């Protein structure tokens, strides 16, 4: 594993999720010698529960159990959480970033022209999503198809593997950009645990990284931390550049579920359609999950009687824009819900129950809350400036940690835009 360090690099990107992959791809396209260091593995996606669990369910690595028994997860793998997400593409909120002097529209336009990003065709929307959407519209909600980062020609009906990792090449992930970066000369090293950044004479000169149990020094005049809302602040802390505890947001989710008698399903693309209420900070979508995940939710809340009802159970996601709080620490993560968070979830759950009632669902129950979008830990305006620069020359951050305000949105497309914008800036200087 020492081979990548035998020559100097123009840039080191720590992490290969959307922000890091986008930055690395564009830098490599423009001739930079880029080293990508990924903590997780890079094995081909198999679409299995076991592989997904290794990416996102190992306690203290990809999964964090909170004091209130809720769960926070992240993807530790090439492509980051994009490898196991629901492939939903939300546009960057222009007004939010404008408050910080950032215009992502040019990068968004460029990326839209090359990435698969559109609502699913009707033939790929399953019976459960169709039933939920019809019920939502029947009670007056503006329920619409969501934009998905899926190649329809490769997608298939009756498939449920989005969240396990798509083995068919239908779902776009940040691995696509990593592969392109490597075709332009970038080097990817998986299983690379970056411990700290190296600073000499007041500026960054590289990173210390553990690979196969041995420590190495990788050198470059430019380092971009893209290790995620949990990983990046931890690297900064170990480098003496950030406090041990930093607050964050997580976009808590509750799944509200109810059974119908006239559907035999349970295998379809989740989050095909939904509704976002930006003023209220609440979002909804259909959320058909694989059987093991559904059964885990049912067992979690003591609904043993519903374990066999997966194929006829409609599920609705209720997600909120939560208050920034709690803390990411050196070895732990904790974030209790605030009173405001709980109030939003109550409103959202009540709306989901109305939709399920209109769909004819019975035996309605809800999961405990969980979350998968940790961010805001190195916020624009606090930890980095509008160009994503830290106070250390040559050191940047580009992942969900820089999102400047509570979020409540799928972050993938926004992070791609931030990475593209950062790489363009770095290439022009």
From TrEMBL:
<dbReference type="InterPro" id="IPR036188">
    <property type="entry name" value="FAD/NAD-bd_sf"/>
</dbReference>
<dbReference type="GO" id="GO:0050660">
    <property type="term" value="F:flavin adenine dinucleotide binding"/>
</dbReference>
<dbReference type="InterPro" id="IPR000172">
    <property type="entry name" value="GMC_OxRdtase_N"/>
</dbReference>
<comment type="similarity">
    <text>Belongs to the GMC oxidoreductase family.</text>
</comment>
<feature type="domain" description="4Fe-4S ferredoxin-type">
    <location>
        <begin position="146"/>
        <end position="176"/>
    </location>
</feature>
<dbReference type="Pfam" id="PF13450">
    <property type="entry name" value="NAD_binding_8"/>
</dbReference>
<keyword id="KW-0274">FAD</keyword>
<dbReference type="InterPro" id="IPR051473">
    <property type="entry name" value="P2Ox-like"/>
</dbReference>
<keyword id="KW-0560">Oxidoreductase</keyword>
<dbReference type="InterPro" id="IPR007867">
    <property type="entry name" value="GMC_OxRtase_C"/>
</dbReference>
<dbReference type="InterPro" id="IPR017896">
    <property type="entry name" value="4Fe4S_Fe-S-bd"/>
</dbReference>
<dbReference type="Pfam" id="PF00732">
    <property type="entry name" value="GMC_oxred_N"/>
</dbReference>
<keyword id="KW-0285">Flavoprotein</keyword>
<dbReference type="GO" id="GO:0016614">
    <property type="term" value="F:oxidoreductase activity, acting on CH-OH group of donors"/>
</dbReference>
<protein>
    <submittedName>
        <fullName>GMC family oxidoreductase</fullName>
    </submittedName>
</protein>
<dbReference type="Pfam" id="PF05199">
    <property type="entry name" value="GMC_oxred_C"/>
</dbReference>
């Amino acid at each position: 594993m020492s081979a990548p360090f035998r020559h100097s690099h123009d840039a080191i990107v720590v992490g290969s999720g959307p922000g890091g992959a986008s930055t690395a791809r564009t830098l490599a396209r423009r001739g930079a010698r880029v080293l990508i260091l990924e903590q997780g593995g890079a094995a081909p996606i198999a679409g299995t529960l076991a592989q997904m669990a290794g990416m996102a369910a190992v306690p203290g690595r990809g999964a964090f159990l909170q004091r209130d028994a809720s769960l926070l997860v992240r993807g530790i793998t090439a492509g980051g959480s994009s490898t196991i997400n629901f492939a939903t593409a939300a546009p960057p909120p222009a007004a939010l970033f404008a408050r910080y002097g950032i215009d992502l529209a040019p990068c968004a336009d460029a990326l839209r022209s090359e990435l698969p990003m559109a609502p699913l065709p009707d033939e790929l929307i399953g019976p459960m999503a169709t039933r939920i959407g019809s019920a939502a519209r029947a009670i007056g909600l503006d329920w619409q198809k969501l934009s998905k980062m899926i190649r329809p020609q490769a997608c298939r009906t009756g498939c449920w593997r989005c969240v396990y990792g798509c083995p068919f090449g239908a779902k776009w992930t940040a691995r696509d950009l990593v592969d392109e970066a490597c075709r332009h000369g970038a080097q990817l090293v998986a299983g690379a645990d970056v411990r700290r950044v190296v600073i000499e004479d007041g500026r960054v000169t590289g990173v210390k990284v553990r690979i196969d149990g041995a420590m190495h020094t990788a050198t470059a005049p430019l380092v971009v931390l893209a290790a995620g809302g949990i990983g990046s602040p931890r690297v900064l802390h170990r480098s003496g550049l950030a406090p041990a505890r930093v607050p964050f947001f997580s976009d808590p989710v509750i799944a509200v579920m109810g059974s119908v008698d006239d559907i035999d399903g349970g295998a379809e693309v989740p989050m095909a359609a939904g509704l976002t209420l930006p003023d209220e900070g609440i979002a909804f979508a259909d959320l058909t999950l694989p059987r093991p995940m559904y059964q885990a939710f049912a067992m979690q809340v003591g609904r043993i009687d519903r374990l066999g009802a997966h194929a006829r159970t409609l599920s609705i996601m209720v997600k909120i824009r939560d208050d920034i709080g709690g803390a990411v620490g050196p070895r732990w993560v904790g974030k209790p819900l605030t009173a405001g968070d709980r109030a939003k979830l109550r409103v959202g759950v009540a709306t989901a129950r109305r939709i399920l009632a209109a769909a004819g669902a019975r035996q309605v129950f809800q999961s405990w809350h969980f979350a998968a979008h940790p961010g805001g830990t190195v916020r624009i305006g606090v930890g980095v400036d509008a160009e994503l620069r830290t106070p250390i020359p040559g050191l940047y951050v580009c992942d969900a940690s820089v999102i400047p305000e509570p979020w409540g949105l799928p972050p993938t497309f926004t992070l791609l835009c931030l990475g593209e914008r950062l790489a363009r800036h770095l290439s022009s200087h």
